[in-house]
Each structure stands twice: as structure tokens, then as C-alpha cells.
Design a protein that fits this description.
- The chain starts with a helix and ends in a 20-residue tail after the last helix.
- 83% of the residues lie in helices and 0% in strands.
- It is mostly helical and 556 residues long.
- The chain contains 21 helices and no strands.
- The chain is globular.
- It has two domains: 438 residues, no CATH class; 86 residues, no CATH class.
- The relative contact order is 0.12.
- Helix 9 runs antiparallel to helix 10.
- The longest helix is centred in the middle third of the chain and has 38 residues.
- This is Lipid II flippase.
Length: 556
């Protein structure tokens, strides 16, 4: 019996997921675990450093390494590499692995060249780009440069991981790639706990390096089982390799432009005050939870299935899948955004509240989080809508839209902080405005391109979801205020946990009851998915066991 459980557990990690909802469910559960560890990491950081200058510098130091990584690899890789690898592997397994090795080697060399430049000029970059016009001292800038050099090492290791992630996703193995960030956070947490007193703020920085090694190692084992064979090749003249980079270019520019907002936001936050960068980072981390769990998981699972529908020239199926995916995201994210908006203060206190994290910083973090919540649906939809264009082999349209949205974002952020002298919360508001513009334009151009879109049915479904969410919000707010004032002592952690837990359960039951009453289709899909996976097939049984082919099916 024990061996049977072990075998089932092993298959759960290496099996294929064919439908968007089933694959997204697997990814979302692991994202939730990763997010939980991320909150533990942030809680430790706030506990040791509070809203200090040192922690603000640590967060700021990561902007440039992340920007370079996004420019060379990051999300652009999955958009262009997965279709090319899938096609090459089907033609010839060796050809597929050679493509992987060539692109890995080329990307690594390019990153090393840029990385060496960054490491040499780290202090100048810190002074002239990230902390320009801030109140940071020369000692602060030297610290930022030193941390930045350490973080560059982590990004080099993550290049390997990114390719392994794309390979596993090509085979529809979503569990291990989603699990890798869990190990990444574990690495950071271990170094914080073991070395914080000796290394100070360098402990989480070196933890990123250790976490990156774990992130890579767990995926290396998985791709080796699929037959990956590394070769020291730089076949840039290969037509497939050049075509992948050609497709990657627009997406890479878009990713880099999006990441450009990070140093801009950091600069503006540091312009306000060094602790403002800590507030902004923590608020962003909290609001990213539903975006990762629902937007990233569903978008990541949708790309290969949408690509398969488009490749088979089935425009009706493509359109139906797209609208269904959009509805699923709105069904999950809209009520969560309302829940987070109402419970923003308890959430901040539970996740990063510590003795060294001041009450003023807690209130401002919650205030900033409230503005981020406005765009949670838009942020999540961007991840699916952009991938719909990628599935149609169009990376230029989302790039143009993204650049315009980034302009709106940057313009409003600079206007709010530099000229209107608003607080750090205004950066959350400007980010929300840019995200809404981005999602709106993506949907507009996508709907104009596609035929057979049943917009009437789509709008009716969205109206039901919105009504259910509003009812949930009202049902949530009343007991929240009553319990907060009359029942629980929220100055203590246990009271805060009970308040948040009880109110969240009330919100969940209210929303699901409304979804059942209004006959919202997504509610029925959840019931069917739970019934098929947990009741009929058993908890650890997955679809597609035993196949090592990156075959894409479009059933949903």
C-alpha cells in the first residue's frame, strides 16, 4: 500500500494535464504554497528589518538584475520557445534537444556579457538610475551595488531553470515548474534563519542564489527523465533558432519595458522616502497572490491548448476557449479583489505585521494595497489575453499595446509623485490605471480579430458574476465591521486570524450560493472538476499518465 501511494505521488508530479481548468488547478494549488512561503519570507524580513532603509535597499537592488533577465529570457521564452520545441521534438527528438541546448547556450553567453557589465558598474547604476534624486548616502549606494552583484548570480542560474520550465510545459508537465518557486522561497528562508545575524541584509540576497540552485535542480531532474541531453552547441544559424529569437524579440521588449517600471517605481518611492520602497514592495507582493493563483495558472495552462486550437484552424473552438478562460478568471478574481479590498488592513497585519514594522507603515501598505486591488481582474486578464495573441503567432500587437499601457503607467506615476507630490499609494493607483488600459485594449483588438465570439452570452455571464460579487461584498462588510468592533480583540494575532477567517468563510459561502442561485456556468465547472478528480478518480490520479510526448489536446 505504501509503495502504491509513492507511485501515485510520483505520477502526480510527472503526469500531464490536458484541460485548462485541471492544469490551472494543479498550478494554482502549488502557487498558493509558494505564496504562503513568500509571506513567511516577507514576515521574516519585516520582523528583522521593519520598514528600514536597509530593506528598502535590498528590494531596490533586485530591479536591474530582474530587468536584464526579462529582456533576455523570462516570459518571452515560453511564448516563442514552446511551439518551436514542440514541433522540433515531434519531428525528431534529438532535434528538439539540440534546439534547447543552442538557445540555452546563446542566452547564457548574452546574459554573462551584460551581467559582467552590470556587476562592474553596479554603484554607478545604483546612483544614476535607481536612487537618483533620493536621500540615500554613498554608504547606502555601496550596499545596494554589493547586493545587486550577488543577485546577478541568482539570475544566471535562473536562466537554466527558465529553459527547463519551458521544456516541461511543452510536455504539459505543470506540477514541477510550478513547484520550483516553492524551493526558491525555501532557499531564501533558510538563509534568513541561519545567517541573518552574521550577514545582515546579505542573508536573503545569498538566499536567492541558493534558492535559484534549488529552483534549477528540481527541474533538471524532471527534464532528464524526459530524455534531455545537453550539448555545447551555438547553432545560431539554424532557421528554427533564429525564428524563435525573432518571435521572442517583441515579447522580450515588452517584458523589459514592463520591468522598466520597477526601477522607475523604486526611484519614485525612494524619492518619497526609503521606507516607501518597502511599503510599495510589500503591497505589490500581497496583491500578486490572486494574480499568480488565477491569472498566471490559467494563462500558463491556456497557452498550449489555445495554440493547438489555432494550429488546427478551429477558430470557433479557439474563440469559445478564450471566452471561457476569461470568464473563469473573472469568476475567481473579482470576488477575491473585493475580499482583499475590504480586509486589506487585517491582511497586511497578518502577512508582514511585526514589532519592527511601524503602524504608520502598516496603514500606508494597506492603503496602497487598496489601490492595487482595483486592477486585480485586469492584471489577471492580461496574462491570458496576451497569450491568446501568442497562440496566433502574433507578438507585435500585444507589444504595442503593452508599450502604450506602460507609457500611461509611467506618465501618471511621475505626475503623481514628482509634480503632485502624492504619497506612495499613488504608485499603486497609477499601476492600476496602466493595467486596466492594457487589458481593455488587448480585449478590444482580440475581439475585432476573432469571429464567432458569442459576446451576448459572455456579457450575460459577466453580469451574473458581478452581481454575485457585489452581494458578497455587502454580506462580507457588515459582519466584518461588527466582529471587529464588538467581538474580537484585533490587537492580538489570534483575534485577527479569527476575524479574517470567519469573514472569509462568510464571503465564500455567500458567493458560491449566489453562483448556484444565478446558475453561473463556472460554478458548475468547478463541481464537475471536483467530482471527476477527487470523487470518481481519486485524489492522486491524473490524466495522461505514461506519455512522454508533448501532445496538445484542446478539450476543456
Amino acid at each position: 500500500m505504501v509503495m502504491r501511494l509513492i507511485q501515485k505521488g510520483s505520477r502526480a508530479f510527472t503526469s500531464q494535464q490536458y484541460t485548462i481548468l485541471s492544469a490551472a488547478a494543479v498550478i494554482a494549488i502549488i502557487y498558493l504554497l509558494s505564496a504562503f512561503l513568500g509571506f513567511i519570507r516577507n514576515r521574516l524580513l519585516s520582523g528583522y528589518f521593519g520598514d528600514s532603509i536597509e530593506l528598502g535597499i535590498y528590494f531596490a537592488a533586485d530591479d536591474i538584475p530582474s530587468l536584464i533577465f526579462s529582456l533576455i529570457v523570462s516570459g518571452a521564452l515560453s511564448a516563442a520557445f514552446i511551439p518551436a520545441f514542440t514541433k522540433s521534438y515531434k519531428n525528431n527528438e534529438k532535434e528538439g534537444w539540440n534546439l534547447t541546448s543552442s538557445m540555452l547556450n546563446i542566452s547564457l553567453v548574452v546574459f554573462l556579457i551584460i551581467g559582467i557589465f552590470i556587476m562592474i558598474w553596479a554603484k554607478t547604476i545604483s546612483q544614476e538610475i535607481i536612487a537618483r534624486d533620493s536621500s540615500l548616502t554613498q554608504e547606502n549606494l555601496v550596499l545596494m551595488a554589493s547586493i545587486m552583484r550577488v543577485m546577478m548570480l541568482a539570475q544566471i542560474i535562473l536562466i537554466f531553470s527558465s529553459f527547463f520550465t519551458s521544456v516541461l510545459q511543452s510536455f504539459k508537465r505543470f506540477v514541477i515548474p510550478s513547484l520550483a518557486p516553492v524551493f526558491y522561497n525555501i532557499g531564501i528562508i533558510i538563509f534568513i534563519l541561519l545567517f541573518i545575524k552574521r550577514l545582515g541584509v546579505f542573508a536573503p540576497a545569498w538566499g536567492m542564489v541558493f534558492g535559484a540552485i534549488l529552483h534549477m535542480s528540481v527541474q533538471l531532474i524532471a527534464v532528464k527523465k524526459l530524455g534531455f541531453s545537453y550539448s555545447f552547441s551555438f547553432d545560431f544559424k539554424d532557421k528554427v533558432v533564429r525564428n524563435v529569437y525573432k518571435l521572442m524579440a517583441p515579447r522580450a521588449i515588452g517584458q523589459a519595458a514592463q520591468k522598466f517600471l520597477n526601477p522607475l517605481y523604486t526611484n519614485l518611492a525612494l524619492f518619497i522616502s526609503a521606507p516607501s520602497n518597502v511599503i510599495l514592495t510589500f503591497a505589490m507582493d500581497i496583491q500578486m497572490l490572486p494574480v499568480r493563483i488565477f491569472g498566471m495558472s490559467i494563462g500558463q495552462a491556456a497557452l498550449p491548448i489555445l495554440a493547438n486550437a489555432y494550429r488546427e484552424d478551429d477558430t470557433k473552438e479557439f474563440s469559445d476557449l478564450l471566452l471561457k478562460t476569461i470568464r473563469q478568471i473573472i469568476f475567481f478574481v473579482l470576488p477575491v479583489s473585493i475580499l482583499m479590498f475590504i480586509l486589506r488592513v487585517p491582511l497586511v497585519r497578518l502577512t508582514i505585521g511585526a514589532r519592527k514594522y511601524s503602524w504608520e507603515a502598516t496603514v500606508m501598505t494597506a492603503y496602497t494595497l487598496g489601490f492595487y486591488c482595483i486592477s486585480l481582474v485586469a492584471q489577471s486578464l492580461i496574462l491570458v489575453l496576451a497569450r491568446a495573441f501568442f497562440a496566433m503567432h502574433d507578438t507585435k500587437t500585444p507589444l504595442k499595446i503593452s508599450l502604450f499601457a506602460i507609457f500611461v503607467n509611467a506618465f501618471t506615476a511621475i505626475l503623481f509623485v514628482r509634480y503632485m507630490h502624492l504619497g506612495v499609494w499613488s504608485l499603486g493607483f497609477s499601476y492600476a490605471l496602466g493595467s486596466i488600459v492594457d487589458a481593455g485594449l488587448l480585449f478590444y483588438y482580440l475581439s475585432n480579430r476573432l469571429e464567432n465570439l458569442d459576446i451576448t452570452k459572455f456579457i450575460n455571464s459577466i453580469n451574473k458574476i458581478m452581481l454575485a460579487s457585489v452581494i458578497m461584498g455587502i454580506a462580507l462588510y457588515i459582519p466584518y465591521r461588527a466582529l471587529d468592533v464588538l467581538i474580537f480583540d484585533t490587537t492580538r494575532t489570534i483575534g485577527l486570524i479569527l476575524l479574517t477567517g470567519i469573514v472569509s468563510v462568510i464571503a465564500f459561502l455567500t458567493y458560491m450560493s449566489c453562483a448556484w442561485l444565478f446558475k453561473i456556468e463556472e460554478f458548475n465547472m468547478i463541481i464537475v472538476t471536483i467530482d471527476n478528480r477527487f470523487l470518481k478518480k481519486g485524489f492522486l490520479k491524473f490524466q495522461g499518465q505514461g506519455s512522454d510526448q508533448p501532445v496538445l489536446k484542446s478539450e476543456d
